[in-house]
Amino acid sequence: MVPEPEFKYKQCIIIRNDVKMSCGKKCAQAGHAAIVAYEKSSLTMKKAWMNEGQKKVVLKVSDQKTLFELKTLAVSAGIAAALIQDAGMTEIPPGTITALGLGPAKCEDLDKITGSLSLL
């Protein structure tokens, strides 16, 4: 058996579960969150995460308020955070906050913020 790799860094993508979106729409919003959070990260974090294999975890929250709270916690911990606001061209009204991207950052730092959340 091949040993499972140990990751020191990851990115967390958090999707609002109270907004009615198709699976494809959720995937697109997750993609936006991943890219924007990555772009906001430090060069050191980007390199470490890229060299390790770009671990990502997609989680869910029940409302917009929780996304804002998680973003505040991440920013105070020095973790890159990106709230995603939809343009409203397909399934949902313009301006709807759909997702939050966090990191890349150290796994233990993200776990302090997102460890209680469920997988999407």
Automatic annotation (TrEMBL):
Pfam families tied to this protein: PTH2 (PF01981)
Entry's EC annotation: 3.1.1.29
Family: Belongs to the PTH2 family.
Signal peptide: none
Residues that span the membrane, as ranges: none
Keywords annotated in UniProt: Hydrolase
Any one GO MF annotation of this record: peptidyl-tRNA hydrolase activity
KW Transmembrane (keyword) present: no
Name of the featured protein: Peptidyl-tRNA hydrolase
Record field: catalytic activity: an N-acyl-L-alpha-aminoacyl-tRNA + H2O = an N-acyl-L-amino acid + a tRNA + H(+)
Encoding gene (name): pth2
Gene Ontology CC annotations of this record: cytosol
Organism: Methanospirillum purgamenti
Function: The natural substrate for this enzyme may be peptidyl-tRNAs which drop off the ribosome during protein synthesis.
